[in-house]
Specification:
- Keywords: Nucleotide-binding.
- This is ATP-citrate synthase/succinyl-CoA ligase C-terminal domain-containing protein.
- It holds the Pfam family Ligase_CoA.
- Helix 5 packs across helix 6 and helix 6 runs parallel beside helix 7.
- The protein contains nine helices and ten strands.
- A hairpin with a 5-residue loop joins strand 2 and strand 3.
- The strands form four sheets. It has a four-stranded parallel sheet with strand order 6-8-9-10, with helices on both faces.
- It is elongated.
- The chain starts with a helix and ends with a helix.
- The longest helix is centred in the C-terminal third of the chain and has 15 residues.
- By secondary structure, the protein is α/β, with parallel strands linked by helices.
- The protein has two domains: 49 residues, no CATH class; 149 residues, 3-Layer(aba) Sandwich (Rossmann fold), CATH 3.40.50.
Length: 209
């Protein structure tokens, strides 16, 4: 048990499980199989384990997002979600469910994402064939709303936006962001809405149409 604990701590494990543990006829106790998961956030410390990682079972979009340090989990619904902060992400997913939509993913860009990361985040949602509309819900603090808006415009220029986007921005430079979109919203299929509840209803109505 001590060796198991030492391995758990030394290798930054989330879980170590011996299953099954068997007893032989001559009384020996053997670990017949084991399950080990390592904290992804510790990969910079566990480079030897990282090199052995089997990526064949990873969702392609999750693997792509990971490359850009984006916290993305594919769920499989019809409304793509892009938010900053886990709490806002969960409340966004909840309100989508409330109004009859199905969240397609969990995508938290955090507060320190740069323009390139934000552009990739939009491109990931834009390329998801299950997604019919995108809900961008950002509270601008460290992450400025104008940086996010420029990322959306960059994604539109690079790949073209295939899905309508309901955009709700509050906080740092949200007024600048709104100005950046003036005259382009209809052309790009971006619908700016400051009220959280109204924005959620709008994006859900898009996937029901």
């Amino acid at each position: 048990m001590k060796s198991l604990y030492d391995c758990f701590m030394e290798k930054d494990c989330d879980m170590i499980e011996i299953n099954p543990l068997i007893t032989t006829k001559d009384g020996k106790v053997l670990a017949a199989d084991s399950k080990v998961t390592v904290d992804d956030n510790a990969s910079y410390r566990q480079k030897d384990l990282k090199e052995q990682e089997d990526t064949t079972q990873q969702n392609a979009k999750e693997a792509h997002a990971k490359h850009y340090d984006l916290n993305y989990i594919h769920i499989g619904g019809n409304i793509g979600c892009l938010v900053n902060g886990a709490g806002l992400a969960m409340s966004t997913m909840d309100i989508i469910k409330l109004y009859g939509g199905e969240p397609a993913n969990f995508l938290d860009v955090g507060g320190s994402a740069d323009g390139d990361q934000m552009t990739e985040a939009i491109k990931i949602l834009n390329s998801d064939t299950e997604v019919k509309a995108i809900f961008v819900n950002i509270f601008g603090g460290i992450l400025r709303c104008d940086v996010l808006t420029q990322s959306i415009l960059n994604a539109a220029k690079e790949v073209g936006l295939k899905k309508p986007i309901v955009l709700r921005l509050k906080g740092t430079n949200s007024d600048i962001a709104k100005t950046m979109l003036e005259g382009k919203q209809k052309e790009l299929g971006i619908f700016y809405e400051e009220d959280f509840d109204t924005a959620a209803q709008n994006v859900c109505s898009m996937v029901k149409a």
